[in-house]
Design goal:
This protein is mostly beta strands. It has one helix and eleven strands, in the order E-H-E-E-E-E-E-E-E-E-E-E. Strands 1, 2, 5, 6 and 7 form a five-stranded mixed β-sheet that branches. The longest helix is centred in the first third of the chain and has 11 residues.
């Protein structure tokens, strides 16, 4: 039900990690995600530790889901000397093409412990339904 839109993004993410570069609004870093089906919904979980909910932007246009987030450096006072800085900063983005069988009008979003979780219900028209055949006339009835 979900499709990756850019097969080279994972390679870009690895190169950015190795080079230590941060994402920018014009070239954001990729955020890791998991996607799976749970009952009558698809669930997509994005890792965004240290990002406030105000810095997360979720959009759906037609069937393209776009999630953008920004992690800024923590406020430093004058007396602080940074010894180690490994946590990635900057802009993160991910686009996911959603299938027509998903109900993009009823997406639910939760953010807990640095994980953004989106629940996308499967559209009623995409759920399996029983088709019965009527009497001798051969009429068919579709039940939902």
């Amino acid at each position: 039900m979900l499709m990756r839109t850019d097969p080279f993004r994972e390679m870009d993410r690895i190169v950015q990690q190795l080079s230590g570069t941060s994402g920018t609004w014009s070239k954001p870093s990729v955020m890791p995600m998991d996607a799976y089906r749970q009952g009558d919904a698809y669930v997509i979980a994005f890792d965004l530790p240290g990002v406030s909910t105000e810095a997360i932007d979720i959009d759906v246009e037609r069937n393209m889901l776009t999630v953008k987030a920004e992690r800024r450096p923590t406020g430093k006072s004058d007396g602080v000397q940074m010894e180690l800085c490994e946590r990635p900063l900057g802009v993160f983005s991910r686009q996911v093409m959603l299938a027509d069988t998903l109900d993009t009008e009823h997406i639910e979003a939760d953010y807990d412990a640095g994980v953004l979780t989106l629940r996308i219900p499967i559209a009623e028209r995409a759920k399996p339904r029983k088709i019965t055949i009527g009497g001798e006339s051969g009429r068919k009835q579709i039940s939902g």
